[in-house]
Amino acid sequence: MRFFMLVVLSVLLISGCSTFEGRYQKDTKLIIEYLLYDFPLPETTEIKRDQTVVMGTGGNWAGRISIHDASTPAELLKFFSKNVVDNGWELSASTVSDQIILVFSKDSRIATVEILRDSYLKSSDFFSSGTDVTISVHHPNAIGNQRPFDGYVEPVTQN
C-alpha cells in the first residue's frame, strides 16, 4: 500500500510539473502573440523563456523573443519571408549563410529574425533537432538620447 501511494504521488508531481510547463508555454505564447500581433510565428514554436526579454507596453515595446521549432532553417526562411510580408512588413535586408538573418520594417518598427540550426552538442537532448530563432523587435521610441554621455566630464582621480 505504501509503495502504491508513493507511485501515485510521484505520478501526480510529474504530471503537475508538465502541466505547469504546458500552461507557462501557452500563457507566454499568448503574451507574445499580443505583442507580435502582426508578426506571425509558426504554430509549432516553443518559446525559450530564459532567453526571451520584452520591455515596454502597447505599441512602444522592444525586446527579443527566442524560440525553437522543429522545422528546418529553409522551411522557416520560407515561412517568415511569406507570412511576415503578407502581414504588411517589408523585407529590408537579408543574409543567407550558415545563419539566416532577415530584417523587416513596418510603421517605424524594425524586426530582425536570426535563424540558426540547433547544434546537437549544445542541445539538452542529444537526439533532439530543430532550429533556434531569435526575433528582435525595436520601436523607434525605445531608445531615447543617442549620445547619453555628451557633456560628461571624467572625475579627476588623485594618486
What would you note in describing this structure?
This protein is an alpha+beta fold and 159 residues long. It has one domain (2-142). It has 2 helices and 7 strands. Strands 1, 2, 3, 4, 5, 6 and 7 form a 7-stranded antiparallel sheet that branches. The protein is globular, with a radius of gyration of 21 Å.
H/E series, N to C?
A: HEEEHEEEE
The number of distinct β-strands equals 7
Portion in helices: 25-40%
Which word captures the global form?
globular
Our count of domains comes out at 1
| Residue runs with pLDDT of under 50 for 5 or more positions | 3-18, 123-127
How much beta, percentage-wise? 25-35%
How confident is the prediction overall: mean pLDDT?
A: 76
Give the radius of gyration: 21 Å
Summarize this structure briefly.
This protein is α+β, with helices and mostly antiparallel strands and 159 residues long.
Descriptive key words:
single chain; 159 residues; alpha+beta; seven-stranded antiparallel β-sheet; 2 helices; 7 strands; disordered N terminus
List strands and helices in order, with pairings.
Blueprint: H1 2-35, E1 46-47, E2 53-55, E3 62-69, H2 73-86, E4 90-96, E5 99-106, E6 109-117, E7 131-138
Antiparallel strand pairs: 1-3, 2-3, 3-7, 4-5, 5-6, 6-7
